[in-house]
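Appendix C reproduces, verbatim, an entry submitted by the partner laboratory led by Prof. M.T., so that reviewers can inspect both the input and the predicted structure.
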Amino acid sequence: MLLTVSKRVEFSASRRLFSAKLSAEENRKLFGEESSARYGTGRNYVAYLVFVGQPDPITGMLINISEIKERAGEIIHGRYDHRFLNEDNPAFRDHVPTAENVCGQLFADVAPLFAGNSAKLCAVHLRETPERSATAYANGVVEANYWFDFSAARKTMSPHLSAAENEKLFGVACGEHGHNYRARLTFRADSASDTLPGPEHVSELTRTLRSDLDHKNLNRDVDALRDKPMTTEAVAHFILQGKPAPSRVRLHERDDFFAEAWNTGDMFLGVRESFSAAHRLHVHSFSDLENAELFGKCNNPRGHGHRYVVEATVGGEYDERSGTLTNFEEFRGALRQAILPWRDKHLDLETKEFRKRPSTGENIVRALWPKIDSALQQRLVRLRLWETDNNRFTLHRT
């Protein structure tokens, strides 16, 4: 298993997308009208710093999250926050501060700060706007993400199944209904020699996809989907065929449910559920002073609480006949059943899992994994736990 911890930090900055090597018209074509913003235009950035490693068996922590905030905060506030990146940050004097370049530079700046830690920075994800983000990985891979929205009607069904089989598998979703879809297109550069598609090419793709899908009845109005299973998985696969071709597509039909199709042929399904619980971060073998120094206010003797969000992702064989990866209701039921014993409980005082070990996010996600995985026939590939919007803990099957 691979365990990661992610810390969310924010900063605001201005920047101009403009390359001195290109003409004004070439810049406008590549970067849009923002290229003419001579003194810069602004963004409220959100960065996610992702660390990988093994949690301490006593404290239950992979890394002290407050340490991430303190160390990385100095870099972010000194070089990025409330800066005109093109002129105030030397890294962008000769490099255009695109989302990918800012993300990659953040990784290069922050990673050395944790060189002596057992936990290592493995990725930085940077959200520039709700429609645009990028990710830089330790192995040099860079990903560019573009989101777009569309609304469409459909009947969830497969023409290869009988009416009774469709009813059993899809229930009320067999009736005509609609969704406000949100799709993410991810393009990947595996090395410095790989070229990511330009924004103008991606914009052309999203315009085409919106024309094909927006305000359409997907069962009858989209030629490429006619007479095929109409599921979220099938629509995600259809979007994946666009040009330029994304490396993967994530399609949300609701905030708590998505399908993800990869150009490798892999497919995944994700479901989210939330639960509220109280806890106290405390190591019984430590003194009160040691606990207070390590956990701060999270060591409050009377406890505190969170509204946790859990996201489970399964992979497996896509069934061409039904158009599904797994039974959605069984999937959601397994997740709900797994968190039910913890709902509205004090984790340290009322559950068996945390009577002898701290209820850190790392330990919670590790305790939850086998409960869900066994109910899903070992098809779980990733499990995420948000303690707050700022702190996320993720377990991956390796």
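The chain has eleven helices and 14 strands. Additional entries are available on request from the coordinating office.
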